[in-house]
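Today's session is about reading a structure prediction critically. Students often jump straight to the picture, but the first step is always the sequence itself: look for stretches that repeat, for charged clusters, for runs of hydrophobic residues. Only then move on to the predicted structure, which in these notes is written as discrete structure tokens rather than atom positions. Here is the chain we will use throughout the hour.
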Amino acid sequence: MTDGDVAAFTHLGSSVRSALSERGFSTPTAPQRLAIPPLAAGEHTLVIAPTGSGKTETAMLPVFDGLVEDRPDGFGALYITPLRALNRDMRDRLEWWGETLDLEVDVRHGDTTQYRRRQQAEDPPDVLVTTPETLQAMLTGERLREGLEDVRHVVVDEVHELAASKRGAQLAVGLERLQELSDPFQRIGLSATVGEPEAVGQFLTGGRPCTVREIDVGSRIDVEVCRPTVTDEDERLAGALATDATTASHVRCIRDIVDAHESTLIFVNTRQTAEALGSRFTRLELPIGVHHGSLSKAARIEVEDRFKAGELDALLCTSSMELGIDVGRIDHVIQYQSPRQVSRLLQRIGRAGHRRDEISRGTIVTTRPDDTLEALAIARRAKAGEVEPAGIHEGSLDVVANQIPGIVQSTGSRHVDTVIDLLRRAYPFRDLEESVFRGVLGELHRNRIVWFDEGGDRVETAGSTWQYVYANLSMIPDEATYEVHDIASGGQIGTLDERFVTTFAQPGAVFIQRGEMWRIVEIDEDETRVKVTPIEDPAGEVPSWTGQEIPVPQPVAEEVGAIRAIVGSQLDTGDDVTSVSQDLGERYPGEHRALERACRHLGDQREGDAPMPTADRVVLERQGRTVVLNACFGHRTNETLGRVLSALLGQQSGSSVGLDTDPYRIELEVPTSVSTSDICEKLTKTDPAHVEPILELGLKGSDTLAYRLAQISAKFGALKRWQGSGRLSNERLLAALKDTPMYAESVRSVFHEDLDVEAASAVFAGIQSGEIALETVRGRTAIGSAGRSGGKELLAPENADASVIETVKERLHDDRVTLLCTHCLDWLSRTKVKRVADQPACPECGSTRIAALSPWADEVVQAVQAAEKDDEQIEQTQRAVRNAGLVQSHGKRAVIAMSARGVGPHNAAQIINRLREDEQEFYRDILEKERQYARTKSFWD
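Below is the predicted structure for this chain, in token form.
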């Protein structure tokens, strides 16, 4: 043992050192060696180390030591965790120390019984494990506030998760409210690896001095990127899995890695993927459990305990397992598909091998060329410690609105200056302007949440204050979820998002949850329950979970562009793929076959003489109405660029513009009237300073803004949800709340969470200065065609005027259509809509039962003409017959309506049955159906 090892524990008193010996801790862990000295000295400290590396004990040993030396009368320490599951886990881990040191450790959260809450108020435990939301409730209770006056230590676990959210902004104010109650207390933050740790430290302490103690995680990980190739075994396995050979190769690769280790965590990026992969492992009867946030608490605890006991070889999990839930020792971590961010890779891989200060080992299993290059870039950046900043959520006005009622409910009438000073002491609100603050106060006063005389200087409670406070303890948006219950056992399996239930779910529908297939038997709207029965059918739908795709940061996407540039130039000089991939392998930790396949894909781009999209070259390609701008700028920048382009092109053409983005592409579906030069002109002539106002104009009237506004206005008391008032329509909501602080905060939230105006403006400026090259190519390229659709959003101008309607009419009349006689089945014609007769008829048999189909509907035509039909062809034929019936009844009007995007026979019939005499209203109805299709397409496509 070195002097440094000994020195860490010498900072602790005799009682804690005796407990350490009894527990078998003879040598401090790396975080303990670094952090115990400043913690024992009472310094505010941020401890950064891999999840599961002993951060909890590092923080709590000095806290226990302080409590033993000077017993508190009230709550001596608060341990705040972002997840209830961590509450349970922390109590289990801390109870032994409490019993040994004669300190009481207890838990309090939303499910704690009233009896236990009263006990805690009357006789506070020495250490209370709780959540940010429960702290909010405690700050309003008279007896609890007395107990909180004795707090000397506050530990915030997973502080990096909270810093980037409105929950964290709310907690930051909560800590300052706690500071008003008690003597100055020590603040301790525990965090997985994060960029800009100093900023997270300032968030934790409210700008007070903070000591940062960080473990260099990058030097302690060993990660390899691999991409499975299809083998003969995979061809055989595909049949057993009811899938294709490529997916079978992924399952087989993961299975083999799990078999080679004792205990493995398999991380995936979405719950859909967890369920889909889990169902494959279930079919192979492999001992691999599924763990994610939409499973019931009982189901999660069951798989955690089985994994810890060695009954399961692996856990298939999502980001919730990044946090410190104890599932025993892990010797390997698999990341399925790119982890998207450096911080996530470090948090996930860091869960392996930490118990003996070992190297953490992991494998990233990739599925596509982009995926492989992205994983390589992230793995290199992780080793180098190039981690993304936390992105602290600053200045959110709905948090200000949420905290003002809590402050006056807790302390009574307050001078306005003392309230704003309190808020400014919280780091996210250090720059809060008084005029903005008073605007929020005025809104709360109008909604009768607090009383505030705009001419005076005091803010007081109102009749609705206490109702508001207890209905709005959380900044997590209220979204209904449905419990899923097995009708046979009566047990709860998990939950489903309300949007999935309302959009997809109906009796007989099949979906996957907990890695198993279920059929819906009944939906109980009153109880918000879905009753299901298990089935063996592999062909089901994966639940549409709430949650966005993890965004790829711009630096990662730009490094992918840099890799493309290097590989492309080497291939251009005549190097073969093998030597180029070997060279790449010297700089990036990839398995040689994965590297070779990625290089070969880039070679396909160069073989077609197409320019290589890189970090400083964007390539615009076009085929028909599909335009792809290959741009290596990451999710948020590309989303911002795409929205600006679609808004400008939509305004120019008066037509809907399809938009789909990923970190490396912006895909647009444009009307034929939009030329490639039009798009280039938008890129080269749009003033970078106009990006933000263009986006604001595009947001007006959008469902995205209305959805955010509904959530935020509830925090201002404008919707008073606790009174059960009905919901406003989006249009009325947006109109009613325009020019309010709520509207401004909604726009700010969309910009902060979804877009990057500054980065997009820099791209426009770079293209216009020549720092970023813009090249065009005709037809599709290998890279441009390799994107993965994330759900297409059609952006159409709202409240279209006469010129827009005329443009819509021209677009529809210029569209091509396939006409097929469903009577004789012999006649087929491909033509433009404008050339279709008012009442189409077959020239062969004279029938008017003519189906008007998409110009690419070859499958449907073949199905209708087939002599012997399978089930799918029968269904396609029935749809074509319904289509033909509509054309027979309504002639060309039906052809026009069904030519619109997303408008089939059902929607076309609704449009026609309105019997619009005004032709403009007919096309306006079509445009509205196109917008409806844009809003719902991601759920059913």
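Discussion point for the tutorial: The CA atoms of residues 424 and 432 lie 6 Å apart.
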